[in-house]
Amino acid sequence: MEITSFLSGKSLMRDQRGITGLETAIVLIAFVVVASVFAFAVLSTGLLS
After folding, report:
1. pLDDT for 3-49, tens place per residue?
2. Distance separating the N- and C-terminal Cα atoms of the chain
């Protein structure tokens, strides 16, 4: 029983770390997208004025 709970906890820890990495990747991708849109807006404003 203890071995099963230990293995379950270990896999849960690994899954949690994977989810954290996935969330970090999503946040970084969103930041890059927002930065590129902001840069495009600034460049478009500069070209128009």
Report:
1. 555 555 555 555 666 678 889 999 999 999 999 999 999 998 886 66
2. 72
- In this structure, what token pair is assigned to residue 26? 């999503």
Give the SS3 label for residue 24. helix
The rounded distance, in Å, linking the Cα atoms of 30 and 36 is 10
**pTM for this prediction:** 0.54
Buried b (16+ CB within 10 A) or exposed e, 1-11: eeeeeeeeeee
Exposed/middle/buried for 12, CB within 10 Å: 0-12, 13-18, 19+? exposed
